[in-house]
Write a structure and sequence with these properties.
It contains 3 helices and 5 strands; from the N terminus they run βββαααββ. It has 102 residues and is an alpha+beta fold. This is F-box/WD-40 repeat-containing protein.
Length: 102
């Protein structure tokens, strides 16, 4: 889909590596597609990689939840700190009298 026109197009010419459009605005736009195939192949491969990574993360999440850990990585932070028995030591280090340090 060609973007960039706010009103109706009057004519479209399609060449080997360019598309030329003229519209109601009195503007002619030229799109150069000499490298469009290479760009499209790169875009598709990147989308495939992102999909593979998403599926890999989803698989790991389902495996972790099947083992009984709801949030295995997050549950460590909620456990008591053995050093000073403080349950929320991370937040206490960052706060002074209930306010965040500047």
């Amino acid at each position: 889909m060609l973007h960039g026109f706010g009103s109706n197009l009057f004519s479209v010419a399609i060449g080997f590596d360019r598309i030329v459009c003229g519209g109601e605005e009195g503007v002619i736009r030229i799109w150069n597609f000499s490298q469009a195939l290479e760009i499209e192949q790169r875009v598709r491969s990147l989308r495939g990689i992102r999909l593979e990574n998403r599926m890999r993360r989803r698989k790991l999440q389902t495996e972790m939840s099947a083992k009984g850990g709801q949030g295995g990585q997050c549950s460590v932070a909620a456990k008591k700190n053995q050093m000073n028995s403080d349950k929320n030591s991370w937040h206490n280090k960052r706060r002074v009298n209930g306010k965040l340090k500047a």
